[in-house]
Design goal:
- The chain has 369 residues and is of the alpha+beta class.
- It has 3 domains: 169 residues; 48 residues, SH3 type barrels (Roll), CATH 2.30.30.60; 122 residues, Alpha-Beta Plaits (2-Layer Sandwich), CATH 3.30.70.100.
- Helix content is 55%, strand content 21%.
- It contains 9 helices and 14 strands.
- The strands form 5 sheets. The chain has a 5-stranded antiparallel sheet with strand order 6-5-4-3-7. Strands 8-10-9 form a 3-stranded antiparallel sheet. Strands 1-2 form a two-stranded antiparallel ribbon.
- Helix 1 packs antiparallel against helix 2 and helix 2 runs antiparallel to helix 3.
- The protein starts with 8 loop residues before the first strand and ends with a strand.
- The relative contact order is 0.05.
- The C terminus is likely disordered.
């Protein structure tokens, strides 16, 4: 008796099983293609209409990572209707593990890349900083792929515990030998990610100062005002208190004016108002206060505080010079004298009186400037 076509057995499976397997795969494939052709464009349009960029990233991730993963899932679902040889099952299992690991690693690298792009790249103001961030991103991707390889080998049944233990012991030895280098490397990552300063910033570290020229993996180089190059280890910079003058929005200036004690009171009262008028007449300045603050050892002291808008040191010096010239000009017009250190010495001469006693006869006072 002739066996019906759909009941015939080929390679251990009936034709009906092959038909169900192929039909399942084609059905799932049609669903996926329809989703990609019709539903995905609508999701992209919706994502573009929103303010956030997270939905755009998720749609892009669904398009590049999700679709191949769905096809792989559809294939493995469709072959469940078939009784496969052990060798074929093992081969498909290996292919499936490798495919899932590759897709998962790609997905994780996309997430990391989006995080760097959304948080770091848009905030970096210089090309050099962006290049350093890309180097760090590359390191993260290498770590992800190394972990993916280890995960794949472990799931494929390879005994890698001893290898990992050996690598761990070797890593500890290398870490102890290169402890300083590793500290500088992590400090470099902290500088790049936290950005306390950038290329071109003028910074002061303890009693050393200069313009940042290069931020390397181990060292950061500054160009001092004297022209020489200053080299700091990255760890020294992260452990120190760094003053960044490039990011100073305004400079606070405090100075004093000393006048002689012989200055009349009415003129002394005019000095704070006079200085306030001078400072308020200068662009990019903000007057704070001017007061006759105290009696000095040899002068009357007027204390003045104002702000220079911006961080340009040359502009600050130009403004300070203009103020000094203006104050001197006003003092000359009002006959107000600047004070300078003076000392009075009193000499006494001993003279005998009528009783034969010696008495002291003061000589005129002599002032030494």
């Amino acid at each position: 008796m002739e066996v019906p076509f759909f009941e015939q057995i080929i390679c251990g499976n009936e034709v009906t099983d092959y038909f169900l397997s192929v039909s399942t795969f084609l059905f799932l494939l049609i669903v996926l293609i329809s989703f990609k052709k019709y539903a995905l464009p609508k999701l992209q349009t919706f994502a573009k209409s929103t303010r956030t960029t997270v939905d755009n990233f998720l749609v892009k991730l669904l398009e590049k990572i999700g679709f191949p993963l769905y096809i792989l899932a559809a294939f493995f679902l469709s072959i469940q209707f078939l009784a496969l040889h052990v060798t074929v099952q093992k081969t498909l299992r290996v292919i499936g593990i490798i495919a899932v690991v590759i897709l998962s690693a790609n997905c994780l690298t996309y997430v990391i890349n989006y995080g760097f792009d959304a948080y770091f790249f848009k905030k970096s103001g210089s090309r050099i900083t962006t290049r350093n961030l890309k180097s760090i991103l590359r390191i993260f991707k290498i770590i992800v792929w190394c972990l993916a390889v280890v995960f794949a080998l472990d799931n494929l049944g390879l005994e890698i515990s001893a290898v990992i233990a050996g690598l761990g012991i070797g890593g500890i030895a290398i870490g102890l030998a290169a402890q300083t280098i590793l500290k500088d490397l992590f400090s470099h990552l902290a500088i790049i990610l936290d950005q306390p300063f950038e290329i071109g910033d003028f910074i002061i570290v303890d009693d050393l100062m200069g313009v940042v020229e290069h931020i390397g993996i181990k060292t950061t180089r500054l160009r001092s005002l004297g022209g020489e190059q200053l080299v700091f280890s990255n760890t020294d910079l992260t452990d120190s208190r760094v003053r960044n003058y490039k990011r100073m929005e305004r400079r606070r200036v405090l100075f004093t004016v000393n006048v002689v004690y012989q200055t009349p009171t009415h003129l002394l009262q005019e000095i704070p108002t006079m200085i306030e008028k001078i400072i308020k007449g200068i662009d990019d300045t903000e007057f704070d206060r001017a007061h006759f603050c105290k009696f000095g050892d040899f002068s009357l002291i007027i204390e003045v505080v104002f702000y220079v808008i911006g961080n340009d040191y040359n502009k600050y010096m130009e403004i300070m010079q203009y103020i000094n010239f203006a104050i001197k000009r006003e003092f000359e017009q009002r006959s107000i004298s600047f004070a300078y250190p003076t000392q009075s010495i009193i000499l006494e001469k001993a003279l005998p009186d009528s009783d034969g006693m010696i008495k002291k006869n003061p000589l005129p006072k002599t002032s030494i400037g």
